[in-house]
Amino acid sequence: MLSRDGERVISYSRVQDFVHRPVELTYWSLYDYLRFTEVKPMSDNEREDAYNYIHSLGTASRLPRPGLLFDAQHPNVCTHRVRLISVEAAKYLTWVGGMLPRNDAKSPREEYCRVMCTLFSRKGWRSGLELKTVSQTWTEAFEGEDFPPKAVLVMKHMHELYECNDARHDYAAQRRSGNSAELPPVFASSDNISLGDLDLESDMRHEIDSAENMDIDTLTSLIQESDANNARTRRVFQQISDMHKLIDRIPYTSMADPLRGDEPSVDIPHLPSSAWKNLLTEARQNIIRQRMSALQPVTNDSTNANGVNTSSEYRSGNVSVIDPQGLEVICRSYLDDDYSLYTPTELVKKVEHDFSLNEDQLRAFTRTVAHILYPADGPLRLYLGGMAGTGKSQVIKALIALFAARNETHRFMVMAPTGTAASLVDGMTYHSALYFSHNTKTVSRRTLDKIHAGLEHVDFFFIDEISMISCTDLCRISKRLGEAFDIKQPSFAGRHVILAGDFAQLPPVAGGALYMFNVGQNRGAITPSTEDASLGKAVWHEFVDVVILRENMRQLGVSRVDIAFRSMLENLRYGACTNDDIKLIKSRVLGTNLPVSIMDRAEFRNVSILTAINSHRDAINNRASVRYARDNEQQLTKFYSVDNWDTNSYLARCATAPAHVRNELIRRRQQVLWDTPPSLSGQIAGILPLCPGMPVMLKHNEATEVCATNGAEGRVVSWHASSGLYGKRSIDTLFVELVNPPRNIQVGNLPPNVVPVAATTKAVTFYIGEKNAPFKVSRKQVHVLLNFAMTVHASQGRTRPYNVVDLSECPNHQSIYTCLSRSSSLEGTVVLQDFDTSKFTSGTSGDLRQEFKELEILDWLTEMRINGTLPDNAPKHNRASIISWYLQWKKGWLMPPKAHKSLTDKNIIPRKRVAHTGLRDPHAIRKVVSAPRVRSVPTTSIFWLPWDSCDWSCCYDATIFILWGLMKQNVLTFQVAVSENYGPVGKHILSALLALQTTADASHFSLVNCRNQWRTMLSELYPTEFAR
Fold it and tell me: Where do the DNA helicase Pif1-like DEAD-box helicase domain residues begin and end (predicted)?
């Protein structure tokens, strides 16, 4: 027998199930048993009940619910049950494999009778001896059997199928002999399958009628399943069709400047893809060696004329005691560029001047330099915020220049959550840097040793686009560094960390954002994921040094329109746009207030269009590639992927079909895989149309050290190809010239900034058929996509002088803000079609608004700390304690003067009410109370006890929380236990906790008072044991 498991056809014998079927089904035939039953696994509770039932009675008959039990000899009697199927849902059996015996002279009568008795005997059987006696023949047993009427009807239809096959074979023989006889009547009906329905190649020598033993229904179902026809696929193709219609109405009339024929052709030697991979690896190693060269001795004699040691021992981080004059000599001794004539202080001033840092940027730069030159108390935890375009990356570039001037580039590493963001700041994804794998959450000791070796001398980490990193991700980064360096505390193995990003932009794709209140909250048991999320949230709250950049360095226009555009972006960041803001951006909608002919201008013609969904990106790339080749008088060459998949599993139901039919079905399925757009194939194109100069985007981290990262933009220079499946051209190596890389790179003898991208094999899962069943394919293709359009996620961090956007599918104001904030000016912005304006005025969620307010406060306090105006009693290490102190100092939620008006306006209601773990503005809470609740499940607030760093309170903090939790579980039991076992101290604590329980909900203020009273009493009663 054959059974189906999703798309797979697997061998499975149910004879054993029938032999050991439940006693209630004793008088069922094999045919009825197969049609009206199915075997289901039991739950854990059902397994236990079944075991007890069988072993207590010694036999098995039936459980009360939810199914029937096999008899006790069945090996799965305690793990699986038999469930009956209704008549409407009954299975229709299809006979595959060898032919069943026929009821005529073409099959032995004895064999036919044996099979029919086995299938349809109404007596049922558990052994062949139950069907006939030893002295009987199968013919006698068949004639003496009282078959049910339905069984007789099935046997009759089985014989009609053989007669149909005979007629078909006769007709096929007539065609082969050249006789043009008429089609037999059995094929004349339009309800039957014709040869044309199979669309076979014209040069095939055999026809479908050669499939002597194949069921027509099976073949038809296989053909239908070749189509990627499911709800998800239909939706994607509809989106592609809609975008095609939108793009087609743009009149691209004028020709762009074609590629000049006098441009020298690039002569690239033809090498195997493995050789190009080796050259790329060699280029990576060269860069790594250059970065680590600062750790090597300059000369054999490491003592200079002034008697100061300048060896690698100093440069690798070991401590040496020197005087100020010696420090200056050291700095001069190893600086060999334009900065080498400056003292450390002069060097910092020089970098500040060269990068034209504004006041806010200077604060962040100075705060970091203090830890570079003069190590402070504890590692740096700095958050660099501000709206898009305020120059966060400029601060990082200045720090990189400072490290380079000091010959200490090995001390600084830039990471980002996506390859796009990493490529813009000459960094790498944290997945690559820390060896995170999608397949497993564990890490081997060998991998940790690699991380340790690569990051041994790195003590400053800069992580960009922090808004796209979840709490769980931040915890994993901190943990991985701790595991690599075998340092569990403090976080990030004690390294200095700078986080940069704008929480008004895109949130994480998966997991809770750092500003979410309900991160780590779970009504059920605590899981590793919720624990990591809670720890990540706690790590994020360690970043109390905050600098918010406010001067927009991207939109620098001074005209009235430019000023209005900047104002619109500031309001959009908080979802608080005015009518004038909406009117302003509406003026840039194509075809409504802006002529469609503007897209024909050279600056907009081939610019990559920003869109929110992958299907729209695929549609734009599809149309634009043809136009680009035509405009530049180039031939568009299509390169097909090489796909390997399990054809035997796919064709298991037509095992007896002739080879040409099986090959045709395979070809059909392969064509479907090729035609599937990248949005449905793991972002790996089945068909990649290319021509010289074509803009492309890398979709894989080929080599982060040479700027060939996922999201890097480039243009096609050349390629090496070969013949692939069905004679289609398959690309082996694609040569891409990177566009505006962070620095110039050189790979072998290739032209500058040209990198080889070799075809790589990757597992891709397709979802085929109406059942949306997964279909796994091993696809070999270069991991690049055309770059006439990109998603919003790929655009984050970019500055675009000419920015064409599609806002129709943006889910919220954060996505819209990310799209529009890429623009350098309003004049360079084009909106492809109309959009929903309600998202511009929807406001921010309560948790995001609260995060903005707390960051504004921390920014203000950081500025006062740098300026020396912050009171001495201000805490320094934990956000909760700092905010609590601030509320007491300012008598409430007094917002800094630089905060946006939407954060100070008490009439603005956040978009929804959510559970919270931090301190909330009481005005905001009162406003939200009247709003409809999103969740009716009550939530419990979490309180912090600020740590007394001068008079350590850790053990008291932990104990008071434990006691509070025990009392909340059972007040009466807790009261008896404490009063009887802990004397006067216990009674005092008990009275204080009961007072909190009866008067009001506990807060961190009241628990702090209770803790301090307890400490004072213990110190007075036991001054030696509890000295303060």
Answer: 357-579
